[in-house]
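User: Fold both of these, please.

Assistant: Here is the first one.
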Amino acid sequence: MRVILTVLLVLTAGCGRGADAPATGPAAVRVTVTRDYGSVVLSVHSAPAGESALNGLRRVTRVGTSYAGRFVQSIDGLSGDRSAGVDWLYFINGIAPDSGAADVDLHPGDREWWDRRYWSDLVQTPVAIGAWPEPFVHGYGGHRHPVTVTGPACASTISDALRAAGARIVTGAADYRIEVETFAQAATELGDWRGRGLTVSLQDGHVMVYRGRGGRVALPAAHALIAGYQPPVAPGHAVVLVVAGDSEASACDAAATLATHPSRIADTYAVALDAAGTVIAAGGRP
């Protein structure tokens, strides 16, 4: 328990000053507050860039802290419950920082997302897809990265959507990449669900969905998934998003959903889809 608490303190630590100021325009930071792996959206506000993530949160919500201000205990009166393994954790552009919120700076166009969730099985989920098209447009920590998209011809729909959003698409190797592939190709990288913090994963060619306290379950109706992970580097240095299907056709339908209907994956950690590309489950949710 002491080790887990230490990790949580790092993830949500910090103290800062609150202030009220409007923020508008493309440079504004979007601050989203949810619960239960994004299943309930509690608030969405805009905050200015150029200050810490904690101060950005304080500008638009009421924040309660514990441990001498080092831990975000409550947001707008809703508290975590460490005895039940539930706390507030956060992402910047879909990436979980390894520093406290007072030590992470917000940059123009960033998306700050706080989620009150059960963490006992997965203390860290390094990448969440629900900030799409981030982090592929604005990157992380103010550093934009070139992006490569690989796979069959249908992967071009993702390239086109990202390019239109402002991402820099390149050919060849890149630290930020999107892979459209089959389950057979993705089996190794999406099999280590604990090691990579995957709420939707693969096991023996089947889609497994993490249900929080309900554990992992197989989802026979799922023929595709969209999930992200981080290679073993510091947060934001590299990101991989995988769009995989039990056939190339299923993978292509999932890619089309990602590219043309991004609202269907908003505020999710990872998703499972049927053969037609319809989202049928989101990781972490009952």
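And the second sequence with its predicted structure:
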Amino acid sequence: MEDYPKTAAEFQRLFSTEEACWDYLVGLRWPDGFRCPRCSATRAWHTADKLFRCAECERAVSATAGTIFQDTRKPLRLWFQVMWWVIAQKNGASALGLNRILGVGNYETAWTWLHKLRRAMVRPGRDLLSGDVEVDETFVGGVEKGGGRRHIGNKALVAVAVEIRGAGIGRIRMKRIQDASADTLMQFVRESVAKGSAIVSDGLQSYRSLPEAGYRHRRRVIEGSGKEAHNVLPRVHRVASLLKRWLLGTHQGAVSRDHLDYYLDEFTFRFNRRTSGHRGKLFFRLLQQATAVGPAPYHALIKGIRGPKRSKHKR
């Protein structure tokens, strides 16, 4: 059963203590009761330091092990407060705003926590898009002069898939891609859209192999039609416009290409739940997914790229 706070006041009441947060996390981690990850035994006893000691193999297991909370030195209650604040921000959360409001430590700590949470915004095994789906690519940062419409240069190319729901928009999927080749775009389609669906695309040759891959294909050629791209594929262009506005507004455009996928995940998480009646349900979903994805230590977040400077503050 989905049990979550409906209002900010209820959130404060339900999670007023560290113990209450731990109990809630345990319920999400093991909804059918404790199960040892080593021997699958179901009997265990609690230790003084919030561990489960398996009655069969005696392995000590923490409710945070194998989740984004693993090895954290901050109170779980602060994590809950951060997650509630993040989902309560209609236009997204920035590290600067998070540190200013909740004081998690410093900018680096806030940046790290937000990136951990973004990794929890993609549900493992999530359902594929279905029905009629518009697919196209867009640049984040604009097109460089002299390169043509799909010349990447120093910009980021993003593939976008949008469900057509009458005159409106259903769910979306986004992914940063290296190029607009057939292999790259077909991989994105397979990862995002269920076979048998109808893909609506422009006239790019890369989409011609869609029928062979099990999709129906509705090709809308822009060149020579007298129509603009945003009129031929209106939904995908609307979503792309909202994405760029969000990146510029919430993050002032300061998103590196190396981290872009995780910002795309956050935008997708928010967009696909834009009609949710309760912020609390988004909190529940995010926390539920945070227990299903693996840890994301700081060194893994910045591996091979230039991240924020390290500090002595603990995360």
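The two ends are 32 Å apart (CA to CA).
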